[in-house]
Amino acid sequence: MKTLPLALLPLLLATAAHAAPDPYAARVAKVLKATPLIDGHNDWPEALADKVKEQRWTVPLNRLDPATFHTDIERLRAGGVGGQFWSVWVSADLPELQQVKDTLEQIDLAHSFARRYPKDFAFVNTAAELRAAHKAGRVASLLGVEGGGQIDGSLAVLRSYRQLGASYLTLTHARTIAWADSATDNPQHDGLTPFGEAVVHELNRLGMLVDLSHVSEGTMLDALRVTKAPVIFSHSSARAICNTPRNVSDAVLKQVAANGGVVMVNYAPQYVSEARRIWSAARSGEIARYNAPPFNGLYIGDPEGAKKALADWEKANPEPVVTLSQVADHIDHIAKVAGVDHVGIGSDFDGVGSLPQGLSGVQTYPALLAELMRRGWSDADVAKLAGENVLRVMAAAEKVAAGMAGEPAGSGTVAGLDGVK
């Protein structure tokens, strides 16, 4: 009998491994057939506005360059996506009245997905509508307004967003605002002001979800204290693993469990990996050290010299690799501390410049679910992560709103409630 050359063995093993079916693929497919996979945060509308400008209204959405976009219809289908909260984000540095105008344009752009592709998208407002859209084979589309500045201190503007289909409000974005502290800005209020508490109450009355991603821990705790409905973190991870204030501490995770809410894990590398977070901060320091106009920097007035110095620093200090497995670590941690009923997925696709290895776009959700199955997660628990937890929170918020139906619409103002002149 002839023996095969040893040189061929690696090739044969690789071929056999490639041919072998993924033992978790059938389980993932079964879960996603019964339960819609729901992502809490995708910035596709803003990415389209930023990258293709006025063509955003007409550019074909079936297939987009994966080097430019994380999302398109073909990849949503490949990823088994059943529900998506589209973020309608505008810069927190803009005047708030301008933020309102730009938010309205973003809302209309997100609605255009279903107008242009009615066989692929269905706009929904309730948990029942989301399940129905999934059963009909469409990606259920919802809206998340990503910053309290986008209401310009007006509960009437908030109500208008709800009438246009907004399902959640993130209480702040990157900046502290007149009524709430941000996680990434200097605090001014030790959490929420009285008007901020009124915003939470009005969100409850409207059946909109209170989103606590981006807010300070003080704001998280105040919102958890005053809300009548479960909260969400639409795209945040575990602070015990990556120590950024954008993530959720174990103390808050325990309160989220008591509240019945859900933390939807973010893929942004600087919120996933502590090493990546530290590297990013060091790199920002180097950029300032080399060139910080108008007066500072070792290479001030010499941008090419500064660019070369940064390239040399990056060569000596390579960016830490962040992986799908590390994202799964955050999911595992939140499930351990808060319980498996209180964790979900909030990728931040099309809102970040880089992504973990293995999570390059919306087609990769099954790989993340398979990784959790490898770690021993049951199909029932994977279904909770994929969408059942969010559906439960949505239904609970709807029930709270029904119980508040007799209340008058909120009429408070920042000036009136906070004593601001």
TrEMBL record:
Gene3D superfamilies in the record: Metal-dependent hydrolases
GO annotation, biological process: proteolysis
Swiss-Prot/TrEMBL keywords: Signal
Keyword Signal set for record: yes
PROSITE patterns: RENAL_DIPEPTIDASE_2 (PS51365)
UniProt xrefs under InterPro entries: Metal_Hydrolase (IPR032466), Pept_M19 (IPR008257)
Protein name: Membrane dipeptidase
